[in-house]
Specification:
- The protein has 280 residues and is α+β, with helices and mostly antiparallel strands.
- It has one domain: Alpha-Beta Complex (paralog of FGE (formylglycine-generating enzyme)).
- 17% of the residues lie in helices and 18% in strands.
- A hairpin with a 2-residue loop joins β7 and β8.
- The longest helix has 11 residues.
- It starts with a strand and ends in a 5-residue tail after the last strand.
Length: 280
């Protein structure tokens, strides 16, 4: 894990960053973005956060201790059937024993539901990060646009670049870069893309569950100190973008509302936070 010192930052997007994002994504829905990403000051206590996303090997160890349980009718791990000839799940279960597929031990776990991510986090004496904690670990006190700074560099992140392997579906690739991976990459594959606190893969590779409920208008009423998100909701939040996403989704303020079930979501995983008093 890496240490994130107490501090404050501007969460969301100010005018200049918002202009840059709208330019990249070609979207003219400025009013929508101004509400969802309204810039606001957040102050946070110190915490520890996983340096990388949780891997298939780590999640298999957890499943082999506790089984693949269900909460609210949703399994912790939800391997999908895949489609278009591609099977997404990278964990096999044989006679109740879970093993990562050969060569994918150090890849981020995918097709894990929000419940599975939360249960694993509790198992390691931690929890899922609050959305504000996740963004602070990614952006730092200076509120950089990307984990590594304010200028995009496609060699520092796994995203929809020239090597993207879903071209048959009509997705536009960024041919200016080739990050070396057609889909998922082993965690920590881009050390030069580390955030200010040393966290890796905070942009791209897989989206990451955070603890908060999703509310598009929450930023406007968010408390300054240690915000925990809305008290209730129907969908949770993913952060960070993935190998499946275009350049503008690599910006550290990006967020996505998602059902807590991850069935067939071959692009979302998670990392954990541990309170400061647990690791001295």
């Amino acid at each position: 894990m890496v240490y994130v010192p107490a501090g404050q930052f501007e969460m969301g997007y100010g005018d200049a960053q918002l202009e840059e994002i709208l330019r990249m994504c070609g979207d003219d829905s400025r009013e929508w973005y101004e509400v969802e990403y309204s810039a606001h000051t957040v102050a946070l206590d110190a915490f520890w956060i996983d340096q990388t996303e949780v891997t298939n090997a780590q999640f298999c160890e957890f499943l082999n201790k506790h089984g693949n349980q269900r909460e609210e009718g949703i399994s912790w791990l939800e391997p999908g059937a895949g489609h278009r000839g591609m099977v997404y799940g990278l964990i096999d279960e044989i006679d109740g024993v879970f093993t990562p597929r050969t060569g994918y031990e150090d890849h981020p776990v995918i097709e894990v539901s929000w419940y599975g991510a939360a249960a694993y986090s509790a198992w390691v004496n931690g929890r899922l990060p609050a959305e504000a904690e996740w963004e602070y670990a990614a952006r730092g006190p200076d509120g950089s646009l990307y984990p590594w700074g304010n200028t995009f560099d496609g060699e520092l992140v796994n995203y929809r670049d020239a090597g993207f392997n879903f071209t048959s579906r009509g997705f536009e690739r960024d041919t200016a870069y080739n990050d070396g991976h057609a889909s998922w990459a082993p965690v920590g594959s881009y050390p030069d893309g580390a955030s200010w606190c040393g966290a890796l893969d905070m942009a791209g590779n897989v989206w990451e569950w955070v603890n908060d409920w999703y509310d598009r208008e929450y930023y406007a009423r968010s408390p300054v100190e240690n915000p925990q998100g809305p008290l209730t909701g129907t969908i949770r939040i993913g952060r960070g973008g993935s190998w499946y996403d275009p350049r503008w989704r690599m910006c550290s303020g990006e967020r996505k509302g998602l059902t807590p079930s991850s069935y067939r979501m071959h692009w979302i995983g998670f990392r954990c936070v541990v309170p400061i008093d647990v690791i001295p």
